[in-house]
Amino acid sequence: MTKYLLFIISFFILFSSFTQEITGEWNGLLKVQGMQLRLVFNISKTDSGYSSAMDSPDQGAKDIPTTSTSFENSVLTIRIENAKIEYVGTLGSDNKIIGNFSQSGQVFPMDLSHNQIEKVIPKRPQNPIEPFPYYSEEVSFKNKKAGITLSGTLTLPKKEGVYPVVILISGSGPQNRDEELMGHKPFLVLADYLTRNGIGVLRYDDRGTAASTGDFKTATTQNFATDVQAAVAFLMTKKGVNKKQIGLAGHSEGGIIAPIVAANSKNVAFIVLLAGTGIPGDELLLLQQELIGRASGESEENLQLGKKENTELFEIVKKSNDLEQLKKDLTVHMLTSLKENPDSGKPEGVSDEEIVAYTIDQIANPWMVYFIKYDPSIILEKVKCPVLAINGSKDLQVPATDNLLAIQKGLAKGGNLKVTTKELLNLNHLFQECKTGSPSEYAEIEQTFSPVALEFVLSWINEQVK
Fold it and tell me: Which of 99, 108, 112, 191 could form a disulfide with 28 if both were Cys (CB 3.0 to 4.6 A apart)?
């Protein structure tokens, strides 16, 4: 009897393995450095095997063709060769696929199921909830020089009255008016705090982002400065704004932009640099890469090799005056370097040519070329209005000590003594209370903006608008 039951059980196990169904919609959630990205594989049966297409709903991409799809011995393998993407997973008896998603040598666990995937909404207790106890207005203004329209939100303590107003300037990358990233909305939190405490705020979507028009990809820091100039001009015509108390508050790259605008406008009363830079772009990038690499556990040998290679690349950029020639020069340099250092730790399965193409795409573009060459100290010498510069002591992207000292020196060289600098303890680049300062922590931390930093900024602004 026992042998008979075992035979029945083994038969059903064998039978189930032959009837596993892989076709249909398979949903997964990819988690990369705190970000969540839903991916969908739509698999179909063909005469010769299987075919599939991939959707990325959070990126607005649908029906991305795959290069190959196979399903053998319960193992699903999907490849998209031009993007260096591969998914390999094993279908279990629970009708779920346990596997890994890899791209360009980086591997991330991702499981698939037929169930719709809902992104986990992170807790962000500081995000304000409507109704707000102040006046809020959707606005738009034109940058006539660029031929674009910028859309944003103007908040004032009350609809009636005249108030100081601060323009918020976002950091690098396309940002909406809340500077939203990983569920955090730093500019919404900052604007809400200031407005509740008597200071109006104008925040807007970067050009080519959300409701603003224009092309973000071809713009440089200097181009973004003209957007801020347009914002200042708009406020000069707006009812409810004290025209003598218009300030700028820039975060990260915004802390580079604010001095450019202030140095060229008599209508800027003060500026706040939130993790703004004071050292040249190439030096900042080298320091940033070293600090983040070390925090991520990279070996000292690899850190020094990376620093050496990037220093050489940046030198080529700094000597270049033609983008197409720069691409050629970088290609020659990198291919030579990769051949001379075959054990340089490049990702498995990625060719030299692919590494070169990726690197050139990251470096040889208008924004990065401008950033690498830019020295903030030159424009800081021309800023005459009061300046507040604050950084977190655990900021690995814009290290506090080096940059605050450089900002202070640049302003002092131009004779500006109306300067306050402050290093805030245990805060990262986003001004969150943190453990290590690593960007990988940003999404995990519930706090969006340290109350200590908010209070410090408000107190200083109040001193300027007495």
Answer: 112
